[in-house]
Automatic annotation (TrEMBL):
This is Acetate kinase. Its EC number is 2.7.2.1. Belongs to the acetokinase family. Pathway: Metabolic intermediate biosynthesis; acetyl-CoA biosynthesis; acetyl-CoA from acetate: step 1/2. Homodimer. Catalyzes the formation of acetyl phosphate from acetate and ATP. Can also catalyze the reverse reaction. PROSITE patterns: ACETATE_KINASE_1, ACETATE_KINASE_2. It comes from Leifsonia williamsii. Mg(2+) binds at residues 8, 382.
Length: 398
């Protein structure tokens, strides 16, 4: 048996999965969390169940080492079944990368060069790549970019209306993110419904820690809510999403905030965290249930923004066949799904309350049988998509 190891390095976490290259079976999964905090945590699920451990994990190099230790202790062995490729999620590929790419030293430099356009993500992605190359020096490493699926955005969707030459010089345009997830989920939705992908107008709502909406027309991304960086669009765990750019000017002038302060404010101390003190949706829901008015208002703001994009993308697509919820919040928070589509019967969206609240981890329909728009929950699997694309890239190169 040969396997693919997939590494998804986030700003403070490292998710991994070992996947059988032929059967696509998941052989092990794991999550290293709270990297850089006083005490980190690793949870590894292998053939013998789940093992957990708390230990200091200063950076992604240490996180990668903790992952290797977990494989050595709890299996499966990474030596018995050869790893034929290591697939890496890389968030920003700029204009340069729109295909899965074998990581060479030059590719590493390019990923580093794009770090200021994805400050929470690209540096962590690169640390993961370097640690993995040290551990697996003889295996091809493949970068799969979040931006790649959005290469099909038309100019009118990726253009910001500022000085065109300045924008060109500084690479200012919409790139879009979560593309690996939007691609996987929109294809899985079509397959689940047994309908041709090429004929479907879909909106995918990827609602995780980071969140983005994508309008998918016949399998191609035609609009998406994240922009030059993963900050624009929906309200997220710690990110503000859309705001009037003049807010920055106002805060710079009146609150004496510098560029680093503003970066920190909007990327790490806004969104749910900024509104409620909780960055995790489960905590916000709990607070709202207990009568916390800030939490209730935050949820209403999240929902208001979601409706804004559902309406906008239905218009951009010229109609809608399928609306899909995915990622941590989208897959698990039935109340949020119900609130997001409440009152959207005018767009042909009719939710079935019972289907929506039934607990299941599988792909499922949650709209009524007579709903013109089919509403689905589709669990995303970025790791499987990265494994597939990594094998393609290795096959193409070899
Ligand atoms: N049952 C649930 N109800 C509401 N939110 C949930 C639930 N389970 C997970 N989440 C939320 O999902 C988010 C994480 O989603 P995930 O897709 O794993 O994000 P990421 O990949 O960006 O880390 C967290 O905000 C978490 O609170
Ligand atoms: C691009 C992005 O926001 O990713 P994540 O949701 O993993 O933070
Ligand atoms: Mg994610």
């Amino acid at each position: 048996m040969s396997t693919v190891l997939v590494v998804n390095s986030g700003s403070s976490s490292l998710k991994y999965q070992l996947i059988d290259a032929e059967s696509e079976e998941s052989l092990a999964t794991g999550l290293v969390e709270r990297i850089g905090e006083p005490s980190g945590h690793i949870r590894h699920r292998g053939p013998d169940g789940t093992s957990e451990r708390s230990l200091p994990i200063p950076d992604h190099t240490a996180a990668f080492r903790a992952m290797l230790d977990a494989f050595a202790e709890s299996g499966p062995s990474l030596e018995d079944d050869p790893v034929v490729a290591v697939g890496h999620r890389v968030v920003h590929g700029g204009k340069r990368f729109f295909e899965p790419t074998i990581v060479t030293p030059l590719v590493e430099i390019n990923i580093e060069d794009l770090a200021d356009l994805a400050p929470l993500h690209n540096p962590a992605n690169l640390q993961g790549i370097r640690a993995a190359k040290t551990a697996f020096p003889d295996v091809p490493h493949v970068a799969v970019f979040d931006t790649a699926f959005h290469q099909t955005l038309p100019p009118e969707a990726y253009t910001y209306a500022i000085d065109a030459q300045l924008a060109e010089r500084h690479r200012v345009r919409r790139y879009g993110f979560h593309g690996t997830s939007h691609k996987y989920v929109s294809e899985a939705a079509a397959a689940f419904l047994g309908r041709p992908l090429g004929e479907l107008k879909q909106i995918v709502l990827h609602l995780g820690n980071g969140a983005s909406a994508c309008a998918v027309d016949g399998g191609r991304s035609v609009d998406t809510s994240m922009g030059m960086t993963p900050l624009e669009g929906l309200v997220m765990g710690t990110r503000s999403g859309d705001l009037d750019p003049a807010v920055l000017l106002h805060l710079a002038r009146r609150a004496q905030l510098g560029t680093d302060d503003l970066d920190e404010l909007l990327n790490r101390r806004s969104g749910l965290l900024g509104l409620t003190g909780h960055g995790d949706m489960r905590d916000v829901r709990r607070a709202a249930r207990e009568g916390d008015e800030n939490a209730r208002r935050a949820l209403d703001t999240v929902v208001h923004r979601l409706k804004h994009y559902i309406g906008a993308y239905t218009a951009q697509l010229g109609g809608l066949d399928v609306l899909v919820f995915t990622a941590g919040v989208g897959e698990n928070d039935a109340a949020l799904r119900a609130e997001a589509v409440a009152g959207l019967e005018v767009l042909g969206i009719r939710l079935d309350e019972e289907r929506n609240t039934a607990s299941s981890g599988d792909t499922r329909v949650i709209s009524t049988d007579d709903s013109p728009v089919t509403v689905l929950v589709v669990p995303t699997n970025e790791e499987l998509e990265i494994a597939r694309q990594s094998l393609q890239a290795v096959g193409a190169a070899g």
